[in-house]
Amino acid sequence: MTVLTFANHKGGTGKTTSALCFAAALGMSGRKVLVVDLDAQCFFSRMVGATEPDERCSSLALFDEKTQITQSSLVERPWFDVLPGSSRMPRYLRTLNKSSDVLWVRESLASAAIDHDIVIIDTAAAVTAYSLGSLVAADHVVIPVAPEFQPMVGAEQSFRTAYTVREKLNPTMRDPTFLITQFDARKRLHHQYRSYLQDKYAGFVLDRVVRTSASLANSYSDGTTVFDHDPRSRGAIDYANVVDEFSIRLAPASAMRETAPLFEWNGAVVAAQ
Fold this sequence. Notes:
- It is built from nine helices and nine strands.
- The protein has helices at residues 15-28, 43-47, 89-93, 104-111, 129-137, 149-168, 188-200, 226-229, 234-246; strands at 2-6, 33-38, 75-76, 81-83, 118-123, 140-145, 177-180, 264-265, 268-269.
C-alpha cells in the first residue's frame, strides 16, 4: 500500500481537486484507491456527496485505537473508496496535543483491514496534528501550487515541512513533488514562477502542469469526475498527463494490480497534447 499526501500551507491551490482527479485517474487505470479526508472542513467528502458518517466510519477512526478501518467503514464511489471527514474534526483536534499524536495516521493505516494499492490523503492548509500525521504516513507528498506569490510561499514552506518530517519521523518518504496548477499561459508571471520552481527545485517539479479550466470547477455528488463527464476537456487531459507522469514515481508496477491504459475512458482515448 502506497500513501500519497496532498499538502500546501496555503489554501486555494487545488489540493482537493488534485486529490480527486488523481484518485479517479489511478482508479480508472486499475489501481484500488482509497481517499482519506483529513481536512477538518471536509471539502473532499462534500465534493463526492458523502453524508455525515458515524464517527467510527470517518477519518477520526484513525485516531481511535479501539476502532479498526474496514471495507464496511468506507463510502464507495465509481473509481475509488472514501473514508470521509466528520463535522467533529475541529473539536476533536483540540484533544490531539501530545507529540505522539502525529503517529496515529501511519499506525492506523498499517493495521487497517483493507486491501488498497494507493491511499490518497487530502489535507487542510493549516499545520495541525491531522496534516502532520498525514506527512508522517506518506510515501509521497504532492504539493499543488498556483503560480502566484502567496501560494508559492506556502508551497516552499510545505516543502521544508515535509523534509523536516522525513528527517525526524518518516525516513522512507520520497522527495516531495511540486505540481503547478491553475496555470495561465497568457500570463508572463505564471511562466516566471514556473521557471523559478524548475530552476530552484530541479527534479522536484512535474513537467506537466494543470491549466486553468472551467471543467474542473464542476463537482458531481456521485463521485464521478471530469473524466466521466468531459474526458476531452482541458482539465481532464491535463490531469491525465500529470498522473501519467507522476505514476513513474510510484511503487513498482509489480506491486500494483494489473492495469489498463491510463487514457482509455468511456471508450475514448484521451491522449497527451
